[in-house]
């Protein structure tokens, strides 16, 4: 008999706010998290894209200094989001060997690495901090969360670019079903709004160049979209077996019913235009959920606002849902938050969970004229999801051809 | 520029607070880094790197293990100044 896995805590920090409730409120209100950057380095290095969606609450406002300085900014976000989720879950009592961590990042400790490189070149090796490697290593998120919460079952990292934190949730779901743990902290974070990433994504023509109108630059599904907007932050879920959650009287947000993962093997950056890989990931998630495509009532699309990415996702979903794809309420929330890379899947899972709780699909802002090649049912206003049981999917696709989809069902008992 | 004993103690306390969150008032000369202040080896190494920068001294790696108390470190740093 397969175990039922539920969400008992959520946490998030992004351009829309420093907590999950703040994020959700701002998302529903149509706030745009994207603004012109004021860092000197934009000017110094002549970065062609001058805006991004920076986290609105800086980690140094939340973490004590001695704690923050031992952590790469991406891990600072991880800790903040995970702590919120843990408190939200009521700080569950669980044996350390039954608590696991599935944590994601896309790029990881970039800031630490490059700052240390500067220190080495400017001041020599004796000034390079002893904690440099423990801070920059990609597993720093998982390791530090394990340390923070005493999670001894395991602390696994998943790295699959923009699919990372959706994949971490899929992994957590599987790990819980396999009995590796009773409670898992899952999610992801990223802090990569750095000259290097901005310059290189700009060189790849992947970023929007709408420097004169940053708040409206991220416009998934619009005919004049011109690339994605860099975001940052992190989000976390506390996942638990239903049995464990009920035994302790936990508040239950929703049920994770499937986690599909596949690979395109098509191109290192472009996803498969036939959508075949993404289709398989969706089908896998639904199969695990024991659900037919007809039962899906809401989709949080990956929809980064790139010219080629958005239509490819549409094709994939059309394969699964047929003509009904134009009727299912879809939310493309990167319009509001930008693209958090390794953290985006978890943030979108939080939004999907809250969409089910509140029975409302969040708005997709910044729509100008809809692209006929991306005829999703998007709306600039929240879309009611109606009564009755809800089943949603959240998609994430990453450079490297990674596809990850989680299926989330409303929990009614 | 030579720092006095008191200045070195105050400066070192600042570095320790920065690294560990321990209140500066806890950082007294007789306190042991490991036993009293609970400072692990990697934090100690970080404090040493910062102290070298702050006080303009060199604290050789094989000397660090001899600096068992705050007082040992203060004396070493004061003596190490030109």
TrEMBL record, chain B:
**Where does it primarily localize?**
cytoplasm
- UniProtKB keywords: Cytoplasm, Fatty acid biosynthesis, Fatty acid metabolism, Lipid biosynthesis, Lipid metabolism, Phosphopantetheine, Phosphoprotein
The record's annotation in Pfam families points to:
PP-binding (PF00550)
Pathway given in the UniProt record: Lipid metabolism; fatty acid biosynthesis
Coiled-coil residue spans? none
What GO annotations for molecular function exist for this entry?
acyl binding; acyl carrier activity
InterPro entries under this entry? ACP (IPR003231), ACP-like_sf (IPR036736), PP-bd_ACP (IPR009081)
The Carrier domain sits at 3-81
What kind of modification does the protein receive after translation? 4'-phosphopantetheine is transferred from CoA to a specific serine of apo-ACP by AcpS. This modification is essential for activity because fatty acids are bound in thioester linkage to the sulfhydryl of the prosthetic group.
- Biological process terms in GO annotation: lipid A biosynthetic process
Top-level taxon: Bacteria
**O-(pantetheine 4'-phosphoryl)serine modified-residue sites:** 41
Q: Name one GO cellular component term.
A: membrane
Record's subcellular location = Cytoplasm
Function, in words: Carrier of the growing fatty acid chain in fatty acid biosynthesis.
User: What family does the Swiss-Prot or TrEMBL record give for this protein?
Assistant: Belongs to the acyl carrier protein (ACP) family.
Q: NCBIfam families from the entry? A: PRK00982.1-1, PRK00982.1-4
- Protein name according to UniProt: Acyl carrier protein
Q: Which organism is it from?
A: Microbacterium azadirachtae
Q: What is the lineage of its organism?
A: Bacteria, Bacillati, Actinomycetota, Actinomycetes, Micrococcales
Q: Which gene encodes it?
A: acpP
